[in-house]
Design a protein that fits this description.
It is a single chain. The protein has 352 residues and is α/β, with parallel strands linked by helices. It folds into 2 domains: 156 residues, Nitrogenase molybdenum iron protein domain (Rossmann fold, 3-Layer(aba) Sandwich); 94 residues, Rossmann fold (3-Layer(aba) Sandwich). It is 40% helix and 19% strand. The strands form 3 sheets. It has a 5-stranded parallel sheet with strand order 5-4-3-6-7, with helices on both faces. It has a 4-stranded parallel sheet with strand order 9-8-10-11. It has a 3-stranded antiparallel sheet with strand order 1-2-12. Helix 1 runs antiparallel to helix 2 and helix 2 packs antiparallel against helix 6. It is globular.
Length: 352
């Protein structure tokens, strides 16, 4: 693909992704110059400077570390039948890429700390140049040193396919706006991603007559993420099942339950990234401080997937051990199914 040319035609995210894939650093720099008004002639590491609330960063990281460490899945070994033993072993990913939206140190914490807990060897962070100093400073506190001042779809492409400066990763994590999430879905044909996370959304579920000030606080906090954020209010009347059905239909990133019936609804909600119960559980508490992960499914994805957890930074390896006697017991099953499917070479392996 040739050098990007200024045009009135809307730029397709796929064009950016393909350009970076084909031309590497050169394309990465040109798109950054275009969208982020950078003057750099090569991809640059983010430089940490300025004051950040060190105690708050470390406190949030410790909460995230505690909660995610408790999620570590157990390895499993089982003799399924005499002479047939299966083992399922969890192992950390070797490398991950983390996208951090402009200045969102909390998103760095939510993705980098679980990666560390899982035991990931290489953690790469990309974040827009504006706001990158604070992200780099927080990353240094966490012990992460590969932070690139590169944002947008071009950053996702760089982490997915690699450039002369940025080596590719095995999986990409992190929230983002429309362009970033579109790029993540495009590259997911070739490299794993966590989930589409963004734009932000909340459903506030409140009993009739509940304090309107608290309702408006929750709505305002979510809309603060940007003009493409979405916020809804479900008023709970006499029909609790109808309110629940409406909430389930939204399948929202965040659900805030307010009022006397909050707890009775909490255990019944299936379609939500995270549920916050009661007036003292504001959604921003989860964004920053509780330890629960704030990288959550949006756009209806909560119907089929949950929020980010430790297992996302790991994968399983299945080990199968069969003895001579075990294979003899399995042989009739292997032979019958292989014959049914016309797999003669498969059938032949059953007798050794």
């Amino acid at each position: 693909m040739s050098k990007p040319v200024k045009t009135d035609r809307p730029i397709a995210i796929e064009d950016i992704v393909n350009d970076v894939r084909e031309r590497g650093d050169e394309a990465l720099v040109e798109w950054s110059q275009r969208f982020d008004a950078t003057t750099a002639t090569k991809p640059e590491r983010a430089v940490a400077y300025g004051d950040i609330p060190t105690a708050a960063v470390l406190a949030a990281a410790e909460s995230v570390r505690t909660w995610h460490a408790a999620q570590r899945p157990a390895d499993l070994m089982l003799e399924v039948s005499p002479g047939v033993t299966l083992e399922r072993r969890w192992t950390p990913l070797r490398s991950v890429g983390i996208y951090v939206p402009k200045g969102l140190v909390s998103s760095l914490i939510m993705t980098a700390v679980p990666a560390q807990v899982a035991g990931v060897e290489r953690i790469v962070v990309c974040t827009p140049p504006s706001g990158s100093a604070a992200v780099a400073a927080a990353a240094a506190l966490l012990g992460i040193d590969e932070v690139w001042a590169v944002g947008g779809a071009q950053a996702i492409a760089a982490m997915a396919y690699g450039t002369e400066s940025i080596a590719p990763v095995d999986k990409i994590f992190g929230p983002g706006g429309g362009a970033v999430n579109t790029a993540k879905l495009l590259v997911s044909r070739d490299v794993a991603i966590d989930l589409p996370a963004g734009p932000s959304e909340v459903v506030v579920v409140a009993d009739e007559g509940f304090d309107e000030t608290i309702i408006q606080q929750e709505l305002a906090a979510q809309m603060e993420h940007g003009p493409d954020s979405r916020a809804y209010v479900v008023r709970v009347g006499d029909d609790l099942d109808a309110a629940l059905a409406e909430v389930e239909g939204y399948a929202a990133e965040h659900v805030a339950l307010l009022g006397d019936r909050a707890e009775s609804l909490a255990g019944r909600i299936r379609n939500a990234g995270a549920v916050f119960v009661g007036p003292y559980s504001p959604v921003p508490a989860g964004d920053y401080a509780t330890g629960g992960n704030h990288v959550l499914p949006t756009g209806g994805w909560a119907k089929s997937t949950g929020g980010l957890g430790l297992e996302a930074f790991m994968k399983t390896v299945t080990v199968q051990r069969v003895t001579k006697e075990g294979l003899e017991r399995l042989a009739p099953t292997i032979e019958a199914l292989a014959e049914l499917e016309g797999m003669t070479a498969h059938k032949a392996t059953a007798r050794r």
